[in-house]
Amino acid sequence: MPTVQTSPEVSISYETFGDPRDAAVLLVMGFSAQMIGWHEDFCRSLAQRGRYVIRYDNRDCGLSTKFDAHPVELDRFIDAVRCGDSASALAMAPYTLKDMADDGLALLTALGIERAHVVGSSMGGMIAQTMALSRSARVLTLTSMMSSTGEPEYGRSSAEAQAVLFSPKPSDREGYIAAADRELVWASKRYGSPAALRELAAASYDRAYYPAGVSRQLAAMILDGSRAAALRELRVPTLVIHGLDDTLIDPSGGERTAELVPGAELMLVPDMGHDRPRELWPTIIDAVTAHTS
């Protein structure tokens, strides 16, 4: 898997699909998830529509740079946030969501791509929004998928989904794979598949099991705060996709994003949760292809 040095301290692992002469689509993955969360078949299908598809591992995940020198104790961090001790919380976080957005833009630069269509999922949607807000000239279009605005009153997790998100996963391979079944709590009610969840968990464990990065990514996401005011001023063509079955980020997160961004298109998808079931790939790919045309 190729990597590029995007800054003195960070290298990013990535993979491309399709013809580099086609319009570039940068796929940004979500919280603690490796780039293989964008399934290879999904990427190839999008590339067959005439797009040069790029997927990559965020920092602290997969095969990209790990920040082992900056451990974050998750319980201490969450306590600081809950107590309103922002100074302590900020001191614990070694990087920001803006830094993660800069990684994606630097990857494009390393690949010789000046402008790209950016598609982000969950935390990746937040990163993609940040790319568009900070460097709008480099973002041809934005697709924010199953994401939110950073305002705490929108896109809230259900209690059950939050409990699963923050539950430690077993460290052994067998236990880690079996624990993937818990994620059915936020999956499509119709198409949610334990087999698919376990397949991704196995591939992720074998490729790069690395739980230490979770707390640092979470810190970056939480401390980013609200993007509402900035999103009101965004002038990048924007598509918002959100599943109606999503319990990890409630559909109000997508609805609010589309409400704030001038001219944004909102696509609420029945039978989609906080996932992209294969049965809905044609719907999603059709929408992204049309938006990036």
What would you note in describing this structure?
The protein has one domain (3-159, 212-291): 3-Layer(aba) Sandwich (Rossmann fold), CATH 3.40.50. 45% of the residues are buried. The longest helix has 15 residues, at 194-208. The protein has 293 residues and is an alpha/beta fold. It is built from twelve helices and eight strands. The two termini are 29 Å apart. Helix 4 packs across helix 5 and helix 7 packs antiparallel against helix 8 (194-208). An eight-stranded mixed β-sheet has the order 1-2-4-3-5-6-7-8, sandwiched between helices. The mean pLDDT is 95.
Write the layout of secondary structure elements.
Layout: E1 3-7, E2 10-17, E3 23-28, H1 40-47, E4 51-56, H2 74-82, H3 86-92, H4 97-110, E5 116-121, H5 123-134, E6 139-145, H6 159-165, H7 173-179, H8 194-208, H9 213-223, H10 228-232, E7 238-243, H11 252-260, E8 265-269, H12 281-291
Parallel strand pairs: 3-4, 3-5, 5-6, 6-7, 7-8
Antiparallel strand pairs: 1-2, 2-4
Helix pairs in contact: 2-3, 4-5, 7-8
